[in-house]
Amino acid sequence: MTIKPQPWAMTKPSKPQSLPTRPNHPFYYKFHPTNWSFQYFEVEKQGSKKKEPEMEKIGLFVPAIRMERIVPGVNGIRQIQGELGEAGSRIGKLQQAGWTYLSPQQYDYMHVYPVRGGKYHAPKWLSLRVVGGKMIKKMDRDSFWKWCCNLLVNGVLPAPETHFWELQTLSHEKTINRLASSQHIPEVKIKINEHYKIMNDMKKCIEEFEQNGLAIYDRILK
Predict the structure, then answer these.
(1) pTM for this entry
(2) What angle do CA 65, 70, 76 make, to 5 degrees?
(3) Which tens digit of pLDDT belongs to each residue from 132-181?
(4) How many Å apart are CA 82 and CA 105, to the nearest integer?
(5) Domain boundary assignment for the chain
(6) Which residues contact 45 (CB under 8 A, 6 or more apart)?
(7) pLDDT by residue (tens digit) across 115-125?
(8) DSSP state letter for 216
(9) Which of 12, 114, 133, 144 could anchor a disulfide with 16, C-beta 3.0 to 4.6 Å?
(10) Contact 162, 68 (CB under 8 A)
(11) What does the alpha-carbon distance between residue 205 and residue 85 come to, in Å, rounded to a whole number?
């Protein structure tokens, strides 16, 4: 059975279906311009002349948007009542430190479900099913990463500074150098090749960004 969420604003349903889990705290998303994740996306291959579209994977640096729960007594969250907290002071400090705050009201990313003793808050990309009294969770990470890119392209998030992308390529290069002395071992050789591929794909992404800017995200946001 798939459970449908309530609106995030907590309107009361007539007969709510309760999830078999414990309540948790509401949350918000935040982004710092130093935080990026390199992800692969399946897109239609450019220049293909075949009737059936050919697909290929491309690698892109994606804003690593992070979740922070509003827990009274943690990170300066002021308690309002019970487990309900007020995060205004915490959000102000984050913004002063260079973080971008993404309001759940404005960007509509939080779903709320009734559970025994309270509410269960989850991102809208997390699907929940109940089978045999057990809750099964599945995150649509591809859609989540595309949402992050869409915020970047639309100017909600600050433009990338490629210095932080280059640091990630150096991390893979250091790993390759560390493993080089053991590359005669098949398992290690496989790891080295994997790091080479990711590093080269990262460098390709940086080069394309320097040439085309945010247009590099167009292929996954069509």
Answers:
(1) 0.88
(2) 105
(3) 999 999 999 999 999 999 999 999 999 999 999 999 999 999 999 999 99
(4) 22
(5) 27-141, 160-220
(6) 53, 54, 55, 56
(7) 999 999 999 99
(8) G
(9) 114
(10) no
(11) 41
